[in-house]
Amino acid sequence: xxxxxxxxxxxxxxxxxxxxxxxxxxxxxxxxxxxxxxxxxxxxxxxxxxxxxxxxxxxxxxxxxxxxxxxxxxxxxxxxxxxxxxxxxxxxxxxxxxxxxxxxxxxxxxxxxxxxxxxxxxxxxxxxxxxxxxxxxxxxxxxxxxxxxxxxxxxxxxxxxxxxxxxxxxxxxxxxxxxxxxxxxxxxxxxxxxxxxxxxxxxxxxxxxxxxxxxxxxxxxxxxxxxxxxxxxxxxxxxxxxxxxxxxxxxxxxxxx
Length: 257
What we know:
Elements: E1 12-15, H1 23-31, E2 35-38, E3 43-45, H2 51-59, E4 65-68, H3 71-80, E5 89-92, H4 95-103, H5 117-121, H6 128-131, E6 135-141, H7 147-154, E7 158-168, H8 174-182, E8 185-187, H9 191-200, H10 204-209, E9 211-214, H11 217-226, E10 231-233, H12 239-256
Parallel strand pairs: 1-2, 1-8, 4-5, 4-6, 6-7, 8-9, 9-10
Antiparallel strand pairs: 3-7
Helix pairs in contact: 1-12, 3-4, 9-11
């Protein structure tokens, strides 16, 4: 009786998050009665060029602000450095990044209400009068969005990017294509992961016919461009928001069956 009322009962959900980020969502899917099929469409590896992170290591005391783009940036940074300077102001994009910092004992000075770059740059402590003449280090993966750095530079900050990891495309695709034949719903957590999913899929017509849950407007636009027609937009990329969107997607699927 209990299993019959679980919101994802019997549904198979393809989870494409990197290995380091997938466990929580997979557990929630299973608890909701679904089957989680995990295939990471992004692999996290060492940066191709380590000079930027080495520079920060040698000049950490020069920076007034440290901004973390993602939980992966937190993990890769704190695993590499022996802690952060006590007087540096730490900022996080999104609640998952904030939780990753707090779990490692870091105090966050700047934590916006929203979950994206736009919310962070709107924070009062990152406006022109607070950042002009200050040095800011942004911990990220290689090739991240320039919006944050460009905005802070326009406000008078001196911005330095520390590339802490590289997003790589998986080489083995047999498991992915097997999962795609089984899946009822796909979840993605980033534009890079979505693009890799599309590039790796052998049967793109079948892929784009599936229901896909995306984490925001940028991913929604990309999914449309790639040919997906059954797109559900989650509020953000957190596990909780993704589960809400999955439950909504399951309701829509049930009504059509």
